[in-house]
Structures are given as C-alpha cells and as structure tokens.
C-alpha cells in the first residue's frame, strides 16, 4: 500500500508508506490520497488529521520521478477535469498536522505547506528542488513558501534548490517544534488529541477565520471573525463549555 490510513480518538492518521522511494508519490498513492482526504473531510467522527511518512528518513520527496508515466492526455483536459492532483483535496476546515520525519522535498514540502501545523524531527530537511529536475513547485510551493517564511529565504530555496535543516526551519518559522525522531509521532498525537478535545465547530471556525482572514484587509478580517464568533455563540457546545468551566469539570463536546 502506498498510503496507510487509520482513525483513533477522532484523529485520522495518514502515513505515506513507500520508504524504499523516500515516500514519494506514485500515481497509485496520489489516487489513494484523493480518496483519503475525502474521507477525512466528510467523516463527522474525524476532527483532525496527522500526515506523516513511514520510517525516519523521509516525509516525502514529492513526485515519484521513476514511476510517473508521461501523460497520455493534454494538460488542459487533465487540469480542467481534476484540477491539481493533491492540494485541493487537502482543503478543509479540519486542521491537518504535518509530522515531518526526514526529507520534505518538492511536492513533499508542498503537502506540508498545505497543513496547518508543521512539526519536525531533528534530522528533517526541507527544500523545493524542482528547479534541479527542470520542473516547478506547481502544487502550492511558489505561493505558499513565501507566505510561510521570509521572501529572501524562500527565493534562495526555490532558485538554488538547496535544502535547509530542521534548526534553520525552526529559526525561520517553517516548523513550530523540533523533537528527536522517536518522539515525533507522540508529539503529533499529543497536539492532535488536544485539538480533538476542543469543540469541533470552534476549531473549524478558528481555521476558517485565520485562513480566509489572511487574504482580507484587517477591517474585513475583523468583521468576518466577529460574524464567525456570532455563528458559534448559540451552539450547544458553547453552552456546555461555559457550564463545564463553572462546574469545574471537563466539557463533553458534540460538534453541535
Ligand atoms: C531527498 C534526497 C536528497 C535524498 O538523497 P539520499 O542520497 O539520502 O537518498 P537517495 O539514494 O537519493 O534516495 C533513496 C532512494 O529513493 C529514491 N527516491 C528519492 N526520491 C525520489 C523521487 N522523488 N522519485 C523517485 N525515487 C526517489 C532514490 O532514487 C533512491 O532509490 P534507489 O536508487 O535506492 O533505488 C534525494 O533522494 C533527492 O534529491 N530526491 C529527489 C527529490 C526531488 O527532486 N523532488 C522533486 C520531485 S518533482 C515534484 O515533486 C513535483 C511536484 C508536483 C508539482 C506540480 C504538480 C504535481 C506535482 C514537480 C513535478 O512533478 O514535475
């Protein structure tokens, strides 16, 4: 199997599982990911997802350059039918955590950039190296890397194809945490379960406010956030949250 999927305690774990090829994406894995992201988005029991790779060498190195056949159809017919292969399927209001366990290169880094939290093992390395293989970070890299880190660093990475290490990624804010490789999935689980224990509608609203607000002028973003707060104001979960606080007990959220 190119990609493994399991669900535990409202958390979906998606593991790219082709360690012999640095967890790169062959066409079968891409098809699997499309189905998996659809499940994550639509299963009401799933509140948060963790994306990682098998082993300690690689998160993913993007397109499997040995197994991706030359296209039989023209680009227009593929693009206008399916859009991009992966990133649009990762778009949802449930948070996604990238647990980066080694190389996150090319489309691998682009998938990590489509996640909301990025945590990494101390041996992780990051790069958009497409320029070295005569291609382009055409999923989201040219747009999202400069929004995630300083422009001059992003340009250096994309134009040279050089990799940066985990310490540098932490310094420039590409990742929020670095831990030893053995501790990575535990940390991802800890964050995922914390998020899953919060009110699901509130969690989705936070992501929506931030993601949509980033592209708005501040006044519009503030107005939008206030409306989202109003949307949450009458939920059963908000009443439960306030009541549980007053009664000094853990809340039981239902996503209503
Ligand atoms: C990551 C590396 C620097 C690691 O080097 P290292 O020396 O440690 O390990 P290797 O011996 O090189 O790798 C071990 C083993 O894995 C195979 N491998 C690694 N990556 C790939 C890959 N992407 N495809 C196929 N096979 C891969 C490697 O060949 C070895 O196999 P073996 O010889 O043992 O049989 C180094 O591995 C490296 O530089 N990898 C390539 C990284 C890269 O260039 N990635 C970008 C790919 S292009 C891309 O992702 C794109 C995404 C996209 C954009 C838009 C729309 C869709 C997709 C662009 C595109 O597809 O055009």
Automatic annotation (TrEMBL):
Indicate yes or no for the key word Lyase.
Answer: yes
Q: Which UniProt keywords apply?
A: Lyase
**Key word Lyase present:** yes
Taking the record's annotation, the residue ranges forming a coiled coil are: none
The biological process GO terms on file are:
fatty acid beta-oxidation
InterPro entries found in the cross-reference section: ClpP/crotonase-like_dom_sf (IPR029045), Enoyl-CoA_hyd/isom_CS (IPR018376), Enoyl-CoA_hydra/iso (IPR001753), Enoyl-CoA_hydra_C (IPR014748)
Q: What's the superkingdom here?
A: Bacteria
MF GO annotations: hydro-lyase activity
Record's family?
Belongs to the enoyl-CoA hydratase/isomerase family.
What is the name listed in the Swiss-Prot or TrEMBL entry for this protein? Answer: Crotonase
Origin species: Desulfosarcina ovata subsp. ovata
The upper taxonomy is: Bacteria, Pseudomonadati, Thermodesulfobacteriota, Desulfobacteria, Desulfobacterales
């Amino acid at each position: 199997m190119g990609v493994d999927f399991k669900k535990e305690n409202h958390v979906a774990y998606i593991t790219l599982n082709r360690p012999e090829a640095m967890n790169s994406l062959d066409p079968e894995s891409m098809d699997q990911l499309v189905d998996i992201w659809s499940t994550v988005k639509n299963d009401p029991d799933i509140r948060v997802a963790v994306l990682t790779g098998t082993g300690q060498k690689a998160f993913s190195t993007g397109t499997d350059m040995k197994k991706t056949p030359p296209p039989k159809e023209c680009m227009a017919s593929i693009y206008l039918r399916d859009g991009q292969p992966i990133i649009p399927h990762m778009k949802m209001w449930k948070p996604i955590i990238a647990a980066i366990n080694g190389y996150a290169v090319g489309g691998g880094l682009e998938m990590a950039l489509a996640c909301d939290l990025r945590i990494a093992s101390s041996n992780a390395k990051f790069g958009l190296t497409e320029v070295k293989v005569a291609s382009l970070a055409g999923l989201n890299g040219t747009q999202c890397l400069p929004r995630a880190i300083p422009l001059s660093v992003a340009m250096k990475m994309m134009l040279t194809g050089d990799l940066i290490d985990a310490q540098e990624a932490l310094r420039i804010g590409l990742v929020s945490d670095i831990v030893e490789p053995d501790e990575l999935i535990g940390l991802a689980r800890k964050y995922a379960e914390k998020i899953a224990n919060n009110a699901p509608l509130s969690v989705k609203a936070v992501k929506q406010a931030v993601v949509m607000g980033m592209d708005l002028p501040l006044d519009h973003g503030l107005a939008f956030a206030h409306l989202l707060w109003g949307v949450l104001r009458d939920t059963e979960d908000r009443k439960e949250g306030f009541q549980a606080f007053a009664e000094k007990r853990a809340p039981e959220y239902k996503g209503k």
